[in-house]
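Fold it.
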Amino acid sequence: MAQKLPPLRFVRSVLKSFMAESGLEPRLLGPHLRVTNAVAGKVDFELDITKDHTNRLKIIHGGTIASMVDLGGSLAVASMGLYATGVSTDLNVTYLSGGGKVGDKISATAICNKMGKTLAYTSITFRNSKGELAARGSHTKYVTQAWKAQETPFTPPEGAEIEEEK
């Protein structure tokens, strides 16, 4: 039987799965994105901005932030103990100020605002390297199948790559 993990190790293990199994996240975000903290219902993460993350104005592309809203919502669901994080039903992003340029870091906090048997509601805020609110997003996920797949919260499935203890 797989072991129950604390939220930070569990969320980092879910992120490893995204990076190993998904087509988008490893190509767009890859090793430049890291989870810095996770507790039940809340995940902090950050991205080192590279040229691949920018638009022709040489600032972080709105699509990069939208992808981080998607991933951040999934990680917020994972912080509630689900390894399979459901599928998107709704995603919204509001851009408020510049997120940064190459060499800057953008920081994010993802919150699971409500987790039900069918839907999970998440919100994500982004701060640029000056500490200004750069963007905010919301992400709703259908989680019925994810609940069915999870026998014990915070327990990865057999064969999952587990984040090493630090």
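The two ends are 22 Å apart (CA to CA).
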